[in-house]
């Protein structure tokens, strides 16, 4: 069962950050697509008493896609560019810096 809070309790629901923000920049001219996005989450409590918390984090990602021909495109993505060690749920560390390469063929 979940806890019921009132304003007088001055408690935050489990895993609910006080602040979050997402931002993205995109460029697309039809053949070339570039993008970068960032996500921020403030401290989140992992217990109903609000005594144990996970630290705030910022995650930055980037991606690019190039159309090589009408039927062929290549893409590259970099996830977690800052190599941030972060957890969305206590005990489950999210992936470190990683790169993804893709090839898209249509026929």
Could you explain how this protein is built, in words?
Strand 7 (87-89) and strand 8 form a beta hairpin. The protein is mainly beta and 107 residues long. The chain is built from no helices and nine strands. The chain has a five-stranded antiparallel sheet, with no helix packed on it. A two-stranded antiparallel sheet has the order 3-4. It has strands at residues 20-28, 32-41, 44-45, 53-54, 57-69, 72-79, 87-89, 92-93, 98-105.
Helix- and strand-based class?
Answer: mainly beta
- Unreliable spans: none
Strand order of the largest sheet: 1-2-5-6-9
Number of strands: 9
Largest beta-sheet details: 5 strands, antiparallel
Helical region count? 0
The rounded Rg comes to: 19 Å
Strand content: over 45%
Apparent shape: elongated
Summarize the amount of helix as a percent range.
under 10%
Mean pLDDT: 93
Helix-strand pattern: EEEEEEEEE
Distance between the termini: 53 Å
Fold topology:
Elements: E1 20-28, E2 32-41, E3 44-45, E4 53-54, E5 57-69, E6 72-79, E7 87-89, E8 92-93, E9 98-105
Antiparallel strand pairs: 1-2, 2-5, 3-4, 5-6, 6-9, 7-8
């Amino acid at each position: 069962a979940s806890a019921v809070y009132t304003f007088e309790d001055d408690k935050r629901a489990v895993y609910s950050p006080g602040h979050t923000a997402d931002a993205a920049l995109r460029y697309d001219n039809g053949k070339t697509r570039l993008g970068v996005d960032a996500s921020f989450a403030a401290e989140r409590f992992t217990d109903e008493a609000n005594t144990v918390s996970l630290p705030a984090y910022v995650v930055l990602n980037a991606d690019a896609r190039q159309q090589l021909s009408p039927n062929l495109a290549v893409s590259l993505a970099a996830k977690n560019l800052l190599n941030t060690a972060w957890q969305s749920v206590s005990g489950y560390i999210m992936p470190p810096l990683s790169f993804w390469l893709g090839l898209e063929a249509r026929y």
